[in-house]
Amino acid sequence: MAKRILFQFDIDSQPSSFDAVVAIDSGVDHLIPYAGVQATLIEPLVHGAMFTRGDKDLKNTAIFLGGSDVEAAETLLRCVTDAFFGPVRVSVMMDANGCNTTAAAAVVAAARHIDLAGSRAVVLSGTGPVGQRVSRLLARDGAHVTLTSRSRSRAQRVCDSVAQEIADASDAPPNLKAAAAGSPEEVTAVLSDAQIVVACGAAGVQLASENDLTSAQDLVVAIDLNAVPPSGLGGVAVMDKGSPISEGASAVGYGAIGVGGLKMKTHRAAIESLFESNDKVLNIDEIYQIAQAVDRR
Amino acid sequence: MAKRILFQFDIDSQPSSFDAVVAIDSGVDHLIPYAGVQATLIEPLVHGAMFTRGDKDLKNTAIFLGGSDVEAAETLLRCVTDAFFGPVRVSVMMDANGCNTTAAAAVVAAARHIDLAGSRAVVLSGTGPVGQRVSRLLARDGAHVTLTSRSRSRAQRVCDSVAQEIADASDAPPNLKAAAAGSPEEVTAVLSDAQIVVACGAAGVQLASENDLTSAQDLVVAIDLNAVPPSGLGGVAVMDKGSPISEGASAVGYGAIGVGGLKMKTHRAAIESLFESNDKVLNIDEIYQIAQAVDRR
Amino acid sequence: MAKRILFQFDIDSQPSSFDAVVAIDSGVDHLIPYAGVQATLIEPLVHGAMFTRGDKDLKNTAIFLGGSDVEAAETLLRCVTDAFFGPVRVSVMMDANGCNTTAAAAVVAAARHIDLAGSRAVVLSGTGPVGQRVSRLLARDGAHVTLTSRSRSRAQRVCDSVAQEIADASDAPPNLKAAAAGSPEEVTAVLSDAQIVVACGAAGVQLASENDLTSAQDLVVAIDLNAVPPSGLGGVAVMDKGSPISEGASAVGYGAIGVGGLKMKTHRAAIESLFESNDKVLNIDEIYQIAQAVDRR
Fold it and tell me: ipTM more than 0.90?
């Protein structure tokens, strides 16, 4: 049988060692890392992957796109799929900076505790790659999403962009609104009726205090994706995994490592699934489906 | 048993993914790609490959030289063999840009249809790496070769160089002549008594029309090594593999993909043979022998 | 079972092919080489290696630090261990330029012929990475070491530094002294009562003549670590392995290749031992212990 080959196309000057280990733990026989991969130079690499194996074996060659620059990786993904010739193609997964597996695992964790359809969710500091993806998944599953930033206009621009992406995927219109959440008063206001809170801020910045969370009377689940102390949500520790956010509270919290187990399993399952056929394109929506399936096991 | 290690020394900034997959499909246990390999820096890499395993295991380490610059790879090959110490050496194969496997497969395909010795062959646009190698193989097997270029003087320079290479390998004097084939009249003239035509032009340039080929009354086989439409030889499609060049014609044609199957098998067989002993140097003549053996299987 | 992954972090623009082959021959399942690794960029690579596998499997991921610049590799080693979080760590080995395995093998070879404790040893041209390590190991095992250089003050600076390193490892005070050994007279003087001589000079420089060695009446063992002719010690050939330094002499000699067998076995045993637990840090002292164990087998 043809060996499983994964081309790790990484944008950074050194390919991610994290992605390398996960690939090997997902059953890849030969990992071939490339550093400093640029959009202008990727076509011959994709063609080399496509044109070397016959129909039957082609599914055993796949591509992983990683690195710390998510936008550049999105561009690379388009270049990769543009290089395909009809059915002559290989499966490809994009998870630069872990953005897709992290966002998918966070939303699946939230859905363990509340039906997303019709729920009220707040994505704090939601303008980055992970926040955008969390908002997209929540909105596509019917949640009423408030995406915040210190600047309301920046939040609005990102909402518009996420809404456009969802519309492009021809869904029901999403329920997404922007809010500023810079000052303590703004944070209190935005959380007042939230059932789900996901904090996607920069490392070491607290976005809401423990008091903010306990004052949010409808809160069901609070997820903090920041792994570096202090935690982004007061009262939620990095190892928390569905434990009460404070003594006696009904709302539960997840820290980055608490979500991390599902994230890792999703990453591995996604890599494994690349080799099931030669036509997978695993981006946020496909990886979310994988995370859901992994969580049901 | 010692694992089979192939060092892929590639001149380009990203090592060929094509060569990587073929190496793995040839039974290599560990592929170790190097990018941007330069002649001035290769000696310690070759020494590291030579001085790490004992006599018995040394044949399980080998070197592949690739990349898009064939001349630079030829220089690297000399540097590699210069770095050997007598019997302390490892096997090495050069196939930059697929030049050797492509040329070898094309000539073997032609030889399926006509005895090369004494045949009349035309190599259109024969001045590049593949054309030179096709001309060399045809001439060494006794064909009367006409090598063309738009510029007759350029064609002559390349003929002289190929003839010198053949003389250096101390063969019978080759029968090689240069011709200009820029204008339609020149093409018609050069093809008038050709039995074999091999087109080695740039992608997407037609070198002879279907009418040129059907008018060549002695034509037996026409091979077009250009994979990008329009085809280099009118009437020969990229997938053709020994089919008539036009309805009712006795001459047959091969397109780039039609030759590609044998090229791939030759590439794999060549990599496999590297591990039979520690003293192989696989360049055009050795790879041609491998292609002949593969075709007889 | 988790596959054995070795990250080869190499400082040079091309990772060492030597280190790659040895790693594979030591049972590594997946070797992942990195070129041009810099101290400022290593933390995320170390974290990626640490945070991808659970407790039980973490010992199957390890790091090798290599390249031609030993000082830079020492700095990298500090950066690697600084990036660990308590017990969340992976095993790491430093052997840039083979400095540790070479020095360890040389001292173990000497100890086959004389009890190091109380012996008189001279390390010629001992100021480089290998010479410093040879001096350190000899002194820690109780030898009276004279470290030479053409410049006495340079030799003294290196002695002070080696002595400080030994003191930092809280041993008994080492017996180390500096000497100039540039002129023939200085060489004769420094060798006059030597029992052990180890030559660590640059390739192709003779540090002592055959006459110098035969005139050293107490000499027991002479080791030349230079592999390029002429040999660093007259009368000691590169392949010598415990053979008399001249006809009828009782002193024996080792050349670079004579020491090389033990060096290679030590290198392989060290790589294998990385995967026994996740907390090894293999630098000169640890690698010396491994060389001793390998030699006793």
Answer: yes
